[in-house]
Write a structure and sequence with these properties.
By secondary structure, the protein is an alpha+beta fold. It is about 45% helix and about 20% strand. The model has no long low-confidence stretch (mean pLDDT about 85).
């Protein structure tokens, strides 16, 4: 009890100095963890969008008459509007082992990478998805 009263009136500033030393290490570490989480979330969003777009294009769904716009809309559902542009999406039919696949590639810059210094700023994210295409033969 005596020690608690004494600490309440202690004004030497040791706690402030200790906080300054520790905060200089942990604050950038916490921000880097946050930035890494955003990077993984964005990569997952792009991969899911690419997979759904490849499936939609391979099945020739009427919802997928414009493959690029379909991918942009799917990415906006999981992230936010504008995370990818139509020019970031490419689609092609490829043959692998005598089987036709619809391939969708989404490439974009990591949108939150400018918040922190390297290695995450300006990182290009690429997601590729394949879906068997029953309408096209090799």
């Amino acid at each position: 009890m005596i020690g608690a009263r004494r600490l309440r009136y202690e004004r030497s500033g040791a706690a402030t100095v200790e906080f300054g030393l520790i905060a200089g290490i942990f604050l950038p570490l916490c921000l880097a963890i946050l930035d890494g989480g955003l990077l993984l979330w964005t990569a997952g969003t792009l991969q899911s969008s690419a997979s759904l777009t490849a499936r939609c294009a391979a099945l020739a769904s009427p919802d997928c008459s414009d493959v690029q716009q379909f991918a942009v809309d799917r990415a906006a559902n999981w992230a936010f509007s504008g995370v990818i542009a139509r020019t970031d999406v490419s689609s092609a039919v490829v043959c692998i082992s005598h089987t036709s696949y619809q391939m969708v590639t989404i490439t974009c810059q990591f949108w939150a990478g400018s918040l922190l210094p390297p290695p995450l700023n300006g990182k290009a994210l690429t997601s590729v998805a394949y879906h068997p295409n029953s309408s096209t033969a090799c």
